[in-house]
User: Fold this.
Amino acid sequence: MEKRIILPGEKIAEGRINAANTFFDGKDTYATAIGTLDTTDRYMALESPYKPVVEDTVVGVITDVRHAGYEVDLNLPNSGFIPTRNVRITLQLGDFVLCKIKLVNEVGDVDLGEVRRLPIGKVLRYPPSKIPRLIGRKSSMIEVLKKYGNGDIMVGNNGYVWISEKNNMPIILKAIGMIKENAHRSGLTDEITNFLKHDGVGD
Amino acid sequence: MTEWVISLGGTKDVQLIIDGKRTDGRTLDELRAIRIEAGVIPEADGSSYIEWGNNKIVCGVYGPRECIPRHGASPYGATLKCRYMMSPFSSLEEHSRSGPSRRSNELSKVIREALENVLLLGKFPNTQIEIYIDVLQADGGTRTASLTAAAVALANAGIPMKDMVAAVAVGKASETLVVDLNKPEDNLGQSDMPIAMSHRDKNLLLVQMDGLLTKEEISKMLDMVEKSCDEIHEVQADALRRIYKTEQKEPFRW
Assistant:
């Protein structure tokens, strides 16, 4: 599939079209971020900061415990908040949590719910715009990583990736680095499977 | 060599152009060699490195992130912060300690205000976006080179912007109009006018002027700038596209 790289300010369509990361100047639609335009004229941004959306699954780190709830670092300008009524378990400072976004207001404050504590592991910062590639089509990529790493991995839409300590950490980190470097290429799942097979993990 | 360093200020006595060739052998409307690399700082959200003649500048973009101090935050959009800094070792002139000075404050301000015009800051209320520009080596025209590099770094960070920005200086040396002034032309020429221009709608985002120019000369210069900015934009576009090339890329070297 032939894809063209589009720069900010490049025209992507005549007239107005409804797409993310574009703007309309009264006549035509232009891109606002570096992205790709495929053969069907569909524009996709390659780089963009994460904007919280209701019902997104996010990984976070507890940064403050208060009477009313918990403050959570979500890789966002503002920290998220878990109100006490939304959580049954008791959390501690530094806990990793997996939760769902319940509410976002117009200045970007985030309320969270459906909280799950994650076991000991590592949380990575990953470019949010490349998260779909890390998950893969029908979560194919993440299944491959889980299979060869022998452990659990949780990917949040906010760009935080939690990796269980049971994983074969060096190999998994290298594989995730490879996916990040080559996020714009096709046929990546096969490449990563090959890499994991040949790098001592085996079947 | 040392003579022009001592006798600063516009003068007609110094012969800067001989047979249509300038001090470094360029023709009148020729730019210095430009090389741009994007994504050179792994920890930054966006970054770029530019070599423009003998200028060497590195630029990093961080954000949108929490606005510090908190009272600087605006509910209407992100606060853009820009810090231009010349390294103490960057040129022959005295730059002593690197830190805020009259000159670097001014340049930080003009670069910030030029970029505020193209960035869609309203999408990120109560946040800040920081641009850090470090001049490692200076040879005339660092504000235009910094602005060119900052635009690449912002695009690399994915900060939504309506347009790409390219900047170049035009001026008058030995009674002749020249593009992209180098250090001797800047110091000994008669006039110097750095201009930043957006690529799509050709808006002027920065115009500063040293020395004197006539109306006719300025309109002639604007045409020269437009042509040069298109050339610079090509280099910027190439740098940004190169990151996403399918084939194996060469590792970045300073």
Notes: Chain B has one domain: 22-239. Chain B touches chain A at residues 45-46, 63-67, 75, 118, 120, 123-127, 155-164, 198-200, 237, 240-241, 244, 246 (CB under 8 Å). The radius of gyration of chain B is 18 Å.
